[in-house]
Write a structure and sequence with these properties.
The chain has 10 helices and 5 strands; from the N terminus they run βαβαβαβαβαααααα. With about 250 residues, it is an alpha/beta fold. The chain folds into 2 domains: about 120 residues, Rossmann fold, CATH 3.40.50.2300; about 100 residues, no CATH class. The chain has a 5-stranded parallel β-sheet, sandwiched between helices. Helix 2 packs parallel to helix 3 and helix 6 runs antiparallel to helix 7.
Length: about 250
C-alpha cells in the first residue's frame, strides 16, 4: 500500500488560449511612435506607447507586455539604460532596440546586453510586425525548451528520491514507511502554513531523508541493542553525507 505520494509542483497541463499580443513602443519622436502604433494596431496588436524609459518601466509594472520596441538615443534614460533595467526587472520580455545611428559595434553591444534584435533607421515599417512575430516565436520556443528541461530534472529528482527511500526501507525493515509517514504529517502542516512550492519541496526532501544516514551505518551499530555508543554517533551520522551530496549536486 502506498503510504505517501511525492509532492509535485503545479504544471501547465493545457494549451493556453491565444490572446492579443501587447507591444510597448518607447521613442521620444512622436511621429515614429504614432506611425508604429498605427501599423501594429492594424496588424492586431495592443499597443502601449511612451516617450521615456522611466515611463516605460512603470507601464511594464502594471501591464502584461509581451515585447518592447525602444529607440536608443532618447533624453534622460536611453535605450541601453532601459534595457539594463529590464534585464533586472523583467528578464523574460524580448527587447528590440532601434536607432538611426547604428553600427556593427553598437548592434553587438546591444545583443550582449540582452536585446533580442536590433533595427537601424530607415526601416520598412511593414516589416516591423514580421520582426515582432519572429522574436515572439523565438522566445516562445526557448521558453518551451526551458520548461521541458525543468520537467526532465523534476522526473530525475523524483526517481532518485524514490530509489533512496526504497534503499532506506530495505536497510531497516523494522521502520518501513516511517519516512513517508513523517513526510505526510510534515507536509500537512506546511500546507496549512501556506508555504510556497519551493519551500514545500525543500521541506518534503528534509522529512523524507531525515533517516538517510542509516544507509551508511554498519549492521553492528544499526541493530545493536540499547543506546548507541556516543563515540560513534558522529561517524555514522556523517557517513552518507558525501555520496548524498554528490547525487543531488549532479
Amino acid at each position: 500500500m502506498q503510504v505517501y505520494q511525492l509532492f509535485q509542483p503545479a504544471e501547465l497541463t493545457g494549451i493556453a488560449e491565444p490572446r492579443q499580443r501587447n507591444v510597448l513602443i518607447v521613442d521620444d519622436d512622436a511621429l515614429v511612435r504614432e506611425t508604429l502604433q498605427f501599423v501594429l494596431e492594424d496588424n492586431g496588436y495592443t499597443v502601449y506607447a511612451t516617450d521615456s524609459g522611466a515611463d516605460a518601466l512603470q507601464i511594464l509594472e502594471r501591464e502584461p507586455i509581451d515585447i518592447v520596441l525602444s529607440d536608443i538615443f532618447m533624453p534622460g534614460m536611453n535605450g541601453f539604460d532601459l534595457l539594463r533595467q529590464m534585464r533586472e526587472r523583467a528578464p523574460d520580455i524580448p527587447v528590440i532596440l532601434i536607432t538611426g545611428y547604428g553600427s556593427i559595434e553598437m548592434a553587438r553591444d546591444a545583443l550582449k546586453q540582452g536585446a533580442t534584435d536590433f533595427i537601424t533607421k530607415p526601416y520598412n515599417i511593414h516589416e516591423i510586425p514580421i520582426m515582432i512575430e519572429r522574436n515572439l516565436t523565438r522566445h516562445s520556443l526557448l521558453t518551451n525548451q526551458t520548461r521541458q528541461m525543468e520537467q526532465e530534472v523534476q522526473k530525475s529528482y523524483r526517481a532518485t528520491l524514490e530509489a533512496l527511500l526504497a534503499a532506506l526501507d530495505i536497510r531497516d525493515t523494522e521502520t518501513e514507511g516511517h519516512s513517508e509517514r513523517v513526510a505526510a504529517y510534515t507536509m500537512a502542516m506546511a500546507k496549512r502554513l501556506k508555504l510556497s512550492p519551493d519551500e514545500l519541496q525543500a521541506i518534503e526532501l528534509g522529512a523524507l531523508l531525515h533517516d538517510i544516514g542509516k544507509i551508511g551505518v554498519p549492521d553492528s551499530i544499526l541493530y545493536k541493542p540499547g543506546p548507541p555508543d556516543a563515540r560513534r554517533v558522529g561517524d555514522y551520522e556523517a557517513a552518507p553525507c558525501d555520496w548524498l551530496s554528490d547525487v543531488y549536486e549532479d
